[in-house]
């Protein structure tokens, strides 16, 4: 049942990412729900599922991208793996911890992404990190923490529960 | 060994496999990447694209309706003003012995979905074959060229922007008429490179770049951008020219699809911002100097009021 729920959440994230989120863009920064989804799944389901889902979601993005096929898949696979490894045993219900995880995961993703996308151009890489990656990571962290809070309030159960 | 890898070290094994697959795809040739992407897109992404279309048809309409109501009021006011100006324009053209502009069809469409990737590369618009939008049509805004329609369903079309690796454009330096090919270069974005221009050619920073029409897809004369940087390639044989696109691809919301009867025709000169100055005969200049000549309607105005007219002459302001 949870797989069905995860698939539905992924579909919703994909649709929102491509249709709605550009409307709430602030100075070029917009939330990245797909990275957030990979972080969420990796955190809840562990490194194997996190890596596989990261690869799959990244590949879907790559099919519609200007960058080389496989770049998003690579970045999200690594993020999924690292989040699952680092997130084991932390206090997931805490909003601050959640924000920190989503923020850092976004930054790690963007470091890999822009390192390849800018083709070794350090100036362009620095520019992208400062102007796009950091604001987007902050934005994503805030939006996802708020979204999780809203959903948990209505569903009356934690989406990111602590390890039992 | 395999048992150790897949049972005791499953997580690391999966990571290595995922990274290896990703890197293998990245190392494929661009043409091969495009083939693999095309195949997967038509299998993996088909349900997602259907979902996007469904959302657009149902939920998206509510959002759009709100915006359209306010826009309709504004456009109604503009329309009334333009109608009056058009009548005046016709009268003044007759006075100056100018010919009517040639006809062209522009299908207005809204962007309903964007590329999932950070750097963009494609858009989905809400018009399709039922509205006359077919694959290969040039897609533009009043600012300039956006890209080309890649594939269409009856009510939706996927547009490849200039920032897509599969969208190359035959382009020309407007001042010197030097032809080249415009391609998005994988690197710092948004950077478009004008390639295949000899080091001997005259290209300067600030030169305007327009479509040349040589590719057979884009009509000639559509503004693409301006030259931002000119350098020589390491061999010294060709120029490396970086173009600043005229269109902000991140914020484009309403676009126009160019649907001429002849794709090799010339784009209307008044479609792209510059208002062509009528060349007047000495006899006419008296009346022009007196302030009777009004500027030619801008792109939006022309798009809003253009009426196809049979047998009109192509793209000459004055005869």
Describe this structure in words.
The complex is a heterodimer of chains A (164) and B (319). Chain A is mainly α and 164 residues long. In chain A, 74% of the residues lie in helices and 0% in strands. In chain A, α3 (47-63) runs antiparallel to α4 and α4 (71-86) packs antiparallel against α5 (95-117). The longest helix of chain A has 34 residues, at 122-155. Chain B has 319 residues and is an alpha+beta fold. Helices cover 33% and strands 23% of the residues of chain B. Chain B has helices at 2-8, 10-27, 30-41, 46-96, 282-292, 299-305, and strands at 106-114, 122-125, 138-141, 144-152, 157-161, 169-173, 178-184, 192-195, 208-211, 223-232, 239-245, 254-258. In chain B, α1 (2-8) packs across α2 (10-27). Mean pLDDT of chain B is 74; it is low at 99-103 and 262-319. Classes of the chains: A mainly alpha (164), B alpha+beta (319). At the A-B interface, α1, α3, α4, α5 and α6 of A face α2, α3, α4 and β1 of B.
Helix-strand layout with pairing:
The complex is a heterodimer of chains A (164) and B (319).
Chain A lengths: L1 H18 L13 H13 L1 H17 L7 H16 L8 H23 L4 H34 L9
Helix pairs in contact in A: 1-2, 2-3, 2-4, 3-4, 4-5, 5-6
Chain B lengths: L1 H7 L1 H18 L2 H12 L4 H51 L9 E9 L7 E4 L12 E4 L2 E9 L4 E5 L7 E5 L4 E7 L7 E4 L12 E4 L11 E10 L6 E7 L8 E5 L23 H11 L6 H7 L14
Antiparallel strand pairs in B: 1-2, 1-12, 2-5, 3-4, 3-12, 4-5, 6-7, 6-9, 7-8, 8-11, 9-10, 10-11
Helix pairs in contact in B: 1-2
Give the class of chain B from helix and strand content and strand pairing. Answer: alpha+beta
What Rg of chain B do the Cα atoms give? 24 Å
**Principal-axes shape call of chain B:** flat
Give, in order, the helices and strands of chain A: HHHHHH
Rg of chain A, Cα atoms, Å: 15 Å
Number of DSSP-assigned strands of chain B = 12
Supply the helix-strand structural class of chain A.
mainly alpha
Biggest sheet features of chain B: 6 strands, antiparallel, barrel
Percent helix of chain A, as a range, is over 70%
Poorly predicted sequence stretches spanning 5 or more consecutive residues of chain B: 99-103, 262-319
The largest sheet of chain B has its strands arranged as 1-2-5-4-3-12
The amount of helix of chain B comes to 25-40%
Strand content of chain B: 15-25%
Largest interface: A-B, 52 and 47 residues
Q: What is the rounded distance between the termini of chain B?
A: 83 Å
């Amino acid at each position: 049942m949870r797989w069905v729920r995860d698939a539905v959440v992924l579909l919703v994230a994909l649709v929102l990412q491509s249709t709605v989120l550009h409307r709430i863009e602030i100075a070029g920064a917009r939330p990245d729900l797909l990275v957030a989804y990979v972080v969420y799944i990796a955190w809840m389901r562990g490194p194997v599922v996190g890596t596989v889902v990261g690869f799959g979601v990244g590949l879907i993005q790559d099919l519609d991208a200007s960058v080389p096929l496989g770049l998003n898949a690579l970045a999200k696979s690594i993020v999924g793996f690292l989040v699952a490894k680092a997130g084991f045993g932390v206090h997931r219900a805490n909003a601050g911890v959640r924000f920190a995880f989503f923020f850092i995961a976004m930054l790690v993703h963007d470091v890999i992404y822009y390192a390849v996308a800018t083709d070794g151009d350090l100036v362009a890489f620095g520019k992208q990190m400062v102007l796009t990656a950091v604001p987007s990571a902050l934005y994503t962290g805030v939006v996802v923490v708020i979204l999780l809070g809203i959903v948990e309030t209505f569903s009356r159960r934690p989406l990111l529960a602590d390890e039992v | 060994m395999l048992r150790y890898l897949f049972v005791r070290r499953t997580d690391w094994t999966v990571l290595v496999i995922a990274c290896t697959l990703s890197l293998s795809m990245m190392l494929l040739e661009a043409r091969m990447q495009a083939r693999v992407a095309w195949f997967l897109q038509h299998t993996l992404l088909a349900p997602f694209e259907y979902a996007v279309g469904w959302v657009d048809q149902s939920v998206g309409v509510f959002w759009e309706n709100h915006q359209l109501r306010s826009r309709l009021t504004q456009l109604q006011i503009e329309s009334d003003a333009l109608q009056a100006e058009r009548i005046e324009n016709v009268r003044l053209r007759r006075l100056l012995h100018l010919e009517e502009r040639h006809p062209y069809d522009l299908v207005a469409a809204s962007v309903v979905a964007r590329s999932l990737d950070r750097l963009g590369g494609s858009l989905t618009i809400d018009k399709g074959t039922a509205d006359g939008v077919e694959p290969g049509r040039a897609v533009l805004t009043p600012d300039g060229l956006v890209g080309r329609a890649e594939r269409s369903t009856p009510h939706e079309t996927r547009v490849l922007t200039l920032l897509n690796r599969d969208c190359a454009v035959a382009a020309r330096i407007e001042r010197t008429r030097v032809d080249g090919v415009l391609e998005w270069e994988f690197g710092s974005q948004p950077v478009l490179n004008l390639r295949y221009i000899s080091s001997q050619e005259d290209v300067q920073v600030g030169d305007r770049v327009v479509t040349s029409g040589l590719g057979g897809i884009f009509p000639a004369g559509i503004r693409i951008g301006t030259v931002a940087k000119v350098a020589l390639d390491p061999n010294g044989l060709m120029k490396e020219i970086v173009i600043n696109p005229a269109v902000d691809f991140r914020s484009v919301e309403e676009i126009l699809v160019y649907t001429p009867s002849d794709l090799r025709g010339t784009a209307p000169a008044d479609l792209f911002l510059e208002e062509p100055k009528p060349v007047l005969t000495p006899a006419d200049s008296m009346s022009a100097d007196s302030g009777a000549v009004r500027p030619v309607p801008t792109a939006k105005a022309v798009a809003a009021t253009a009426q196809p007219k049979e047998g009109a002459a192509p793209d000459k302001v004055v005869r």
